[in-house]
Amino acid sequence: MKNGKHITMGIESSCDETAIAVLADGREVLSNIISSQIEIHKEYGGVVPEIASRHHLKNIPFVFDQALEEAGVSLAEVDEIGVTAGPGLAGALLMGTAYAKAICAASGKPLVGVHHIQAHILANLLEHPELEPPFLSLVVSGGHTILVEVRGYNEFKVLGSTRDDAVGEAYDKVARVIGLGYPGGPKVDKLAREGNPHAHEFKRVYLEKDSLDFSFSGTKTAVINYLHSEEQRGNEVNPADVAASFQEAVIEVLVNKAMTALDITGYKGLALAGGVASNSALRARLQAAIDERSRKSVRKGGPEIRLWIPSPIFCTDNGAMVAVAAYEKAKLGLFTGLRLDVWPNLDLETGLDKLEV
């Protein structure tokens, strides 16, 4: 507690960002320090788990000190410490949880285990304090593509998920074949702005009628097959057109599925979350779809329909999102013992608390 404000620290190390943040009253960001390993993993074309773990071990003490210093608080003034315990890379998760447990053991601070996807969803609360459950969320990242009914701050119902590649994974694979390198998502998004999104009509997969599940493997494979075919024929291709057409196919499915989910659930707003939520085309297309839906609703005497999107800094893996989730769990009394384990494949509905013994 500092100056009457509740202080929460959040630690994130599920992949290749070592991130620690400090919040006041669960919404005010006092510090949000992120040490990225992108330049390190570029050489390998993707994240190497062992290398990521080593760099977390090296970086986390310095990120911890910087987070406290920038926030202007001491460890003694922190009320609880939240840490991502899953899903993610096992070794990377262990680095963050071990450090968090050591601090809590030494200081007596309570520990809160946090689900990575829960944290991404609740990152919206940092800039949209009016957002309260229940609401609908579309989570798009390198490892996840899911439509989630957020019934409470710690209660979730998955309505649809990917049956194969997550959208971020598909972006990375297409970027690699085009020759853009890692990380693929931002590079494809940037190149697509220079291309014609209708130059190629790549496969859109909607699955069964009204299904809220996703499948991007077919779209990704269509792009790869086209590029290989043109190469064998000795034909030149326009990388910008390929990037734009691939992105058009993916975003069309994401937006249409999200609108179907709104129809089915009746919710009056959608919260976007995850690393791919930074994609400029996705943000614009979702906003346009929500705005059109809202105009129709208002004309009929109904409520406005809202779209909540975090700033890009809160879309990437960061400590602030972990801290806001930890704050909400702490209010529910959901603290974790120092025997906290990590769960690399932890699903959102099961959650962390149901696994605690």
Protein traits:
Nucleotidyltransferase, domain 5; five-stranded mixed sheet; 18% strand
Task: Characterize the structure shown.
With 357 residues, this protein is of the alpha/beta class. It has 2 domains: 7-123 and 313-355, 2-Layer Sandwich (Nucleotidyltransferase, domain 5), CATH 3.30.420.40; 132-309, 2-Layer Sandwich (Nucleotidyltransferase, domain 5), CATH 3.30.420. Helix content is 43%, strand content 18%. It has 11 helices and 10 strands. It has a 5-stranded mixed beta sheet, sandwiched between helices. The protein has a 5-stranded mixed beta sheet with strand order 8-7-6-9-10, sandwiched between helices. A hairpin with a 3-residue loop joins strand 2 and strand 3 (28-36). Helix 6 packs across helix 8. The protein is globular, with a radius of gyration of 21 Å. The two termini are 29 Å apart.
